[in-house]
Amino acid sequence: MRYVGLDVHKRSTSICVLGDRGARVQQATVHGEWPKLLExxxxxxxE
Length: 47
Known about the structure:
The protein has 47 residues and is of the alpha+beta class. It has one domain. It is built from 1 helix and 3 strands, in the order E-E-E-H. The protein has one helix spanning 34-41, and strands spanning 3-8, 12-18, 24-31. Strands 1-2-3 form a 3-stranded antiparallel β-sheet, with helices on one face. It is globular. The termini are close together.
C-alpha cells in the first residue's frame, strides 16, 4: 500500500508518496489545476 500526501495551492501541488514503512517512494510538484494532478496520480503503481 502507498500513502500520498498533497500540499495543494492555486497554481501547483506538491506530492509525496510513502511506502508501507513510511519511506519516501516518490516526490514531485505538479504545476496546473486538478486535471494535471489526476493525470500524474494515474501513473502511480500499487494500491
